[in-house]
What does this fold into?
Amino acid sequence: MPRNMIIIAVLLLVCNPSGANPVDARTAWDSRCEECHGDAEKFAAKYLWIIDGKLQGRHHVEDLRLFLGNHYLPDHLIEPLHEMLLKHASTLARFTDECSECHGTPESFVRKSIVSQNRELIGVMTSTAVDEYLKTHRELSAADAEFFTRLLKRVEKIIYSH
It folds into this structure.
């Protein structure tokens, strides 16, 4: 009986019609894309970019949704995955736009300048918690300091996860 329940759950996820329960893009990526393309954030950082607010990649540069639709995805997964990849690409793009002149890529910055101690990011040179340091760094607003702290935590997690 449990096997039948698993089959039904998988069928509901795969056959979920548009307009039904919202799709968890991360789960969809992990079950359908990760085996070939790896982590979604790393993939977006390496292969996708944003030009004039549009997510673009090497394939179907003008319409990445078309590529997703032709790449083994049912219609109801195209928009959630596109939005997730757009979010990942734009987050890293913001670091590139605002920080890379001094700090390089987010990955290289985390590797050489930040350590994790008890789930807290600490600056190597300052020995200060990153979230506290950013509150005084280059006149960042509290919201910006929080944004970059979350970004650096995500990058640290990606780098040091299996």
About this structure: The longest helix spans residues 75-103. Confidence is low (pLDDT under 50) at residues 7-21. Residues 105-162 form one domain.
